[in-house]
Design goal:
The chain has about 350 residues and is mostly helical. Helix content is about 75%, strand content about 5%. The protein is built from 13 helices and four strands. It has a two-stranded antiparallel ribbon with strand order 1-4. The longest helix is centred in the last third of the chain and has 44 residues, at about 315-355. The radius of gyration is 22 Å and the shape is globular.
Amino acid sequence: MSEKANAAAVAKKKESIFKRSDIATVGIILIAFVAIMFVIELIQGEFHFFTVSNWLNILMQNSVVGIMAMGMTIIMISGGIDLSVGYLASLGGIFVAKCIEDWGVPIWPAIILGVLICIGLEAGLGIIISELEVEPFIITLGGSIAFRGIALLICKSREVTMKGELNFFKANLFSFKTADGIMISLPFYILVMVAIAIIVWFILKYTKYGRRVYAVGANPSAAYLAGINVKGLKFSTYVINGLLVGIASIILLARVGTGIITNGQGLEIDVIACVVIGGVAMSGGKGNGMGTFLGILLLGAITNAMNVLKLQSEWQYVVKGFIIIAAVAIGALSAKIMMKNDLRRQRQAALEEQKSA
């Protein structure tokens, strides 16, 4: 076997190990989560957690984070990260609110301008990161601070109250009461989040662009030698992320009804947590959109359970932090175990070939 073919075989083997470790990570977290939820249900004495109404409520509460997590998934698989998404969402919402309420801009032009501003600011960060090849962690952290300042300048450090102009985003596609008197409804923005999740999953799994995102995240030098425009691809991931953050900022504004700097404060932590829990590696080249969607559901359900148990917000931060640590540790551990098992099987096969020769 030639050296190139051997290298390709090793790379293919590593890819299969990573895919299996993704499944193992999500599977372990899912089993642990279901077990914890059953214990909580037993403690509560009422089995209401695993109901349609509660899960629709979880989707409603995490729709904004879910949309932003899909953009973060693409960035992190390509080997980057973005810490500016929280305050960028605040900026987009404040800008749209000011356009509609104070500057007399019609609703749809204001929405389009808000999304374009998010795309433009993310594109600026993407150019710096891709062209200068600097650490995205530092650049996006600086972007987060700058976006907060811009948002505060736009609103003059005051909140901008809407008058219901964006309520159509919250319109229910259907709504009815069950026999138990529980109201079940499906807002429009949940379908937006699910549609975006499906599109991102499809792009990453079935398109040439998706394969290039994985290649750049796994090994940028090898991707460059293979003819991939690494700088252009990294830039494009931040543009896509800007688009999704812009959409999320509009939905966030519609849900809250007020443009204020605290709307997006800290959202980047939940976004990154969902992506990491879903099996996306911080080093890049590993993960998928479906895993991220499961991560959104898991983190949202755990947050929901902690609220039901009336756990203090300080303890909720502790729990979320340990969940992120556990997700990364379990993923790394499962990958190491699988790699050791594969090496053991290869050695056994080599010994058997030597004996038979």
